[in-house]
Amino acid sequence: MVPPETENTIIDAASFVPSRIPSKAALHEPWKLTEEQRQRYRQLAIQARAAKAAGLDITSDENLHPINIPKLSTKLLMPQREDTGISALSLFSGGGGLDLGFSRIGINNVAAFEIMDDAADTIRVACPEMKVYGGEAGDVREVDWSPWRGSVDILHGGPPCQPFSHAGRQRGSLDPRDMWPEFVRAVLKIRPAVFVGENVPALGEAKFAEYVNQTILAPLSKGYHIHVVQLRAQDFGVPQIRRRIFFIGFRNKRIHGKYRPPTPTHAWNDNEALESGIVKCMGVREALGLRESGFDDLSPTIRSTLNGPRNTTSILNSVSARNRFEKLQIWPNGVAASREKAQKFPSPNGHFRLSVPDVALIQGFPDDWPFSGATYKVLGQIGNAVPPPLAYNVAASIVAALGRIK
Ligand SMILES: C[S@@+](CC[C@H](N)C(=O)[O-])C[C@H]1O[C@@H](n2cnc3c(N)ncnc32)[C@H](O)[C@@H]1O
To answer: Which range among 4-18, 40-54, 324-338 has the greatest average pLDDT?
Structure first.
């Protein structure tokens, strides 16, 4: 099901019915639904429940796809490097995509600030060495950063992207979820040697040029020399179309001069791979270990299930994403909690039903990353994350520039 905002539906304001979905989630936006949309969602929920019950009732294995054994090892995309002695503080940590990439390159993430309890729990379990400030204690708006001044080498974080994302309303600074000013406040107070701020590529578009100049570059340029870098997940072996923009600032001008953005380690295109002598990025079917269907491709950009009019277990982002999943013979709705559960719940059209570990893999997380929370909340953490192999390569480029000098 495609969320209403991607259908370009024009809704008459007078027919709005306030959302009754109760949620305290930081990213939840209580969308206004028309009565017609509300009915449609209700019907879909009823149908989904019936389909699930029928699926779980299966007595013969005839129509079940085998449980997939992924071919892609995301850990091999980011081999664990030795300790660099470089420390980092993580803001807006989410489910830990940036943290994982930084940690595998040998950077010590010392603490995390994250407002969403489930995401904070994920980091607590995944990174026991980190001090995790979660929920209210993790709300960066409330933190006095003075005690942190000079205490870490790197400050990294991806403020919420909803104010800028094409999948949202792109209200920028008018969106109360805009946390870039908070990121800037933290950097200026803590004064790390390096900062890394990450977001959706839409933030690099002309529409937000004034915002970026005024809110991010102007205040941070007073103490930092900044590179703005756009990177694609597929160039680092992640089988998904996903671009991200990074603002990487160095206090030291010489180190800024030495900095080189990461160069691709993988290529999706055969010729590109051959010409550059780099590894071919797997398609999503191959990465997930699905049988050959005669067609493979990168996965469409997966969405965060915490965005949009309601929380769902669909990772569909757009109509073009739906078409691409169709061709891939992958069913992107009703993502199951586990591979075993996905197998027992055949999709309506027989296409492969995804599970949480499959979606995690499409985002570059290893199978054993201990996401915490209900399925839609886990999918939210996954969909919001920087693919860890991408973060790993960004971290590697910074370590190279620092030459391990603190
Ligand atoms: C785009 S996600 C970050 C994803 C993360 N960089 C990763 O790679 O997994 C943004 C995160 O900011 C959190 N957040 C939003 N408002 C916050 C606030 N005021 N204080 C702390 N965290 C906040 C959200 O809960 C969300 O997990």
So the answer is: 324-338
